[in-house]
Q: What sequence folds into this?
């Protein structure tokens, strides 16, 4: 590990992780001490109260007032005991055409609500024609073989009934409601739409115009853009759950596409219906036998959602000119709803950022006044889900808000939730869950969502007890698994001015408002080889002769490291001897690392432990990295190098290191000095890209060297500033640990 480029090695990552845990322990102990209750004392007045005109007995009313217990404003009142809860009764049966039916009786009012869920939705939109599912669902109301669109609207409006469609993710939902006395009309129209739609071309044209206008309008809502991009980042840019309709995709949809979607997916054997209201199971079966029988089952394509393939860690940025605030989303993958980890994760995410009493509300809003409404939630999908946490904040505090979010997430993952606060959150969720059953539609919604996500009705009925059973240990386990530093991705939509302040959180990938990658300018060809570019760099820092006159160079620097919102300061020292010997010492308090490279072997000491010799693979990489600066030679170092060309004032070279890592080096076109190196390292969670920026090139004797280096990735950022001694001396023992 060289001090100038701070190459990430497995050993250094282990040191970082150990340090972070230690730092959390120290901070936790400090916080615990600061939260100890202070003993209150009451000082008695030295003066006696005057007894002049004081009555010998108090009035009766005063006695009554004094007998009432006064509230203790220093203690939070405890929650009242919960009332017994039983999941409402329902009946389930299957129709001959394959449709599953749930009947939920609620005879308080003479109304009927019918909800139909069909597997499919946006997830099965053909690539390039996103929006087909939504258009097909809306077109069901635009005319049938028996009724024109106007006739449907007039018939429903005339009796105060309604039928609407909604398409999200993996499903289509069609909902109808009316008074019970009009249920025959409601069902006749609903199943007429399902069985015999005509999809008039003129209606499709008008509907597409509305969709295009809506897609255009979405670009003015940064929060929606951020959520849409986070879906792409978490699920994968080619994953059906990550795709998003646009003006282009909507205009590409034809009537034939809509008809094909209807024929393939709108079928009873991939549907479930809930009938709720003033109805009993016998009535529901009679109605559906009459109206649903013509809707015939048919084999349908299997709706198979691929596994999530999250994009590499980093910051995904949409520059939006004129923005006065930034929409921030910190996101990660989550398991299927039926996974045992989903519920404690959902509770933990709610505890972290959902509403009053959450961690983000207490920090982002109450402590720092960065936002009014932080948020956090977990989606409810059949196979894979997404965690979304964040806020809309003022432009000036964008980076500060991200720092707070990452810091608090680090505390949750490492220390677990506060037990008392989690108990309050669980009590709140239990109360909200129970209150929701005041509406009969809640039962229907839960049963249909359970059917859609392959969760049995018995599990749905027992969900309240499962929520009550969530505790600190289960939340801690779930958040450690899904919200660790390697799991997180950051999405920001905001002013272009904030881009430079986001670099501390990792490499930045820019996108347009259409969520297309913002393409860099194409590389222009250059007439130099990679070795010639490296030779220009050597000449720019002083030349080969000057380097030979300074065989030993030392660096003494101050360093600051930030990881998940926590900052550590210390020192960074290095002794380098050409061509590939070095001794490095990093001391950031809880992060202490030493490394020795003697030209043939490598040793590393972590956190003051005994030096350990690196294995063969790691030694090859570290011996390659033990140079004064990266990018000073290629063929001589035995690595593959490819010249990319020049653009925007830099010359680019790609390098494949001995361990297979890919480095992208960028040299200043005018000075030939190294500006930046992007290093890609494979990890179990995907590619981790580290960006190293070199600045403050200053003359030390005959050499020009960088005095400031900034290293950043999605896990941590380090910056250090120092001075060099180009006339130093060192013995051979400097580059080997004592006793080796």
A:
């Amino acid at each position: 590990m060289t001090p100038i480029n701070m190459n990430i090695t497995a050993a250094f990552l282990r040191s970082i992780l150990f340090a972070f845990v230690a730092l959390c322990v120290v901070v936790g102990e400090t916080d615990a001490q600061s939260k100890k209750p202070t003993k209150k004392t009451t000082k008695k007045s030295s003066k006696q109260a005057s007894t002049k005109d004081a009555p010998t007995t108090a009035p009766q009313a005063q006695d009554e007032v004094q007998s009432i217990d006064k509230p203790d404003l220093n203690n939070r009142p405890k929650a009242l005991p919960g009332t017994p809860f039983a999941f409402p009764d329902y009946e389930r049966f299957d129709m001959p055409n394959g449709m599953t039916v749930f009947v939920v009786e609620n005879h308080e009012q003479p109304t009927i609500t019918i909800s139909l869920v069909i597997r499919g939705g946006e997830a099965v939109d053909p690539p390039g024609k996103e929006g087909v599912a939504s258009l097909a669902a809306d077109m069901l109301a635009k005319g049938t073989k028996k009724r024109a669109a106007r006739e449907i609207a007039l018939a429903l409006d005339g009796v105060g009934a309604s039928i609407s469609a909604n398409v999200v993710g993996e499903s289509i939902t069609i909902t109808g409601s009316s008074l019970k006395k009009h249920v025959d009309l409601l069902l006749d129209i609903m199943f007429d739409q399902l069985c015999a739609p005509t999809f008039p071309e003129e209606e499709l044209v008008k509907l597409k115009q509305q969709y295009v206008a809506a897609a255009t309008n979405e670009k003015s809502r940064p929060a929606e853009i951020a959520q849409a991009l986070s879906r792409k980042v978490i699920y994968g840019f080619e994953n059906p759950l990550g795709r998003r309709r646009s003006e282009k995709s909507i205009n590409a949809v034809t009537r034939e596409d809509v008809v094909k979607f209807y024929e393939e997916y709108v079928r009873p054997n991939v549907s479930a219906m809930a009938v709720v209201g003033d109805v009993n199971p016998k009535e529901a079966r009679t109605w559906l036998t009459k109206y649903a029988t013509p809707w015939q089952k048919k084999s349908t394509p299997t709706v198979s959602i691929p596994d999530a393939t999250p994009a590499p860690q980093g910051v995904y940025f949409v520059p939006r000119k004129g923005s006065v605030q930034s929409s921030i989303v910190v996101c990660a993958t989550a398991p299927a709803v039926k996974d045992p980890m989903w519920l404690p994760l959902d509770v933990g995410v709610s505890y972290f950022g959902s509403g009053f009493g959450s961690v983000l509300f207490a920090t982002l809003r109450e402590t720092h006044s960065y936002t009014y409404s932080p948020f956090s939630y977990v989606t409810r999908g059949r196979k894979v889900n997404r965690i979304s946490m964040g806020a809309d904040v003022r432009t000036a505090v964008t980076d500060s808000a991200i720092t707070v979010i990452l810091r608090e997430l680090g505390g949750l993952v490492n220390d677990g939730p506060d037990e008392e606060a989690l108990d309050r959150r669980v009590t709140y969720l239990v109360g909200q869950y129970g209150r929701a059953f005041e509406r009969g539609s809640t039962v229907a919604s839960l049963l249909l969502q359970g059917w859609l996500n392959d969760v049995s009705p018995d599990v749905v009925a027992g969900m309240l007890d499962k929520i009550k059973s969530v505790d600190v240990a289960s939340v801690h386990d779930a958040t450690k698994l899904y919200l660790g530093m390697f799991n997180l991705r950051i999405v920001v939509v905001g002013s272009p001015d904030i881009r430079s302040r986001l670099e501390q959180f990792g490499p930045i990938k820019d996108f347009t408002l259409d969520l297309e990658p913002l393409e860099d300018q194409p590389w222009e060809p250059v007439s130099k080889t990679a070795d010639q570019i490296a030779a220009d760099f050597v000449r720019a820092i002083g030349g080969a002769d000057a380097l030979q006159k300074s065989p030993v160079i030392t660096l003494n620097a101050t360093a600051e490291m930030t990881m998940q919102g926590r900052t550590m300061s210390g020192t960074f020292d290095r002794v380098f001897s050409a061509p590939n010997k070095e001794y490095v010492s990093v001391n950031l308090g809880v992060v202490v690392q030493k490394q020795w490279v003697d030209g043939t072997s490598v040793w590393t000491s972590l956190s003051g432990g005994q030096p350990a010799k690196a294995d063969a693979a790691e030694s090859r990489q570290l011996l390659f990295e033990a140079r004064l600066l990266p990018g000073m030679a290629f063929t001589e170092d035995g690595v593959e190098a490819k010249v990319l060309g020049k653009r925007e004032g830099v010359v680019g070279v790609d390098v494949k290191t001995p361990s297979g890592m890919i480095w992208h080096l960028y040299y200043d076109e005018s000075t030939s000095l190294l500006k930046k190196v992007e290093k890609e390292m494979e990890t179990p969670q995907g590619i981790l890209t580290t960006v190293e920026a070199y600045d403050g090139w200053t003359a030390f004797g005959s050499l020009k060297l960088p005095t400031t280096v900034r290293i950043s990735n999605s896990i941590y950022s380090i910056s250090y500033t120092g001075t060099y001694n180009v006339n130093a001396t060192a013995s051979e023992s400097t580059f080997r640990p004592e006793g080796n």
About this structure: DSSP finds 22 helices and 25 strands in the chain. The first strand starts at residue 91 and ends at 94. Residues 1-8, 25-66 have pLDDT under 50 and may be disordered. The radius of gyration is 33 Å.
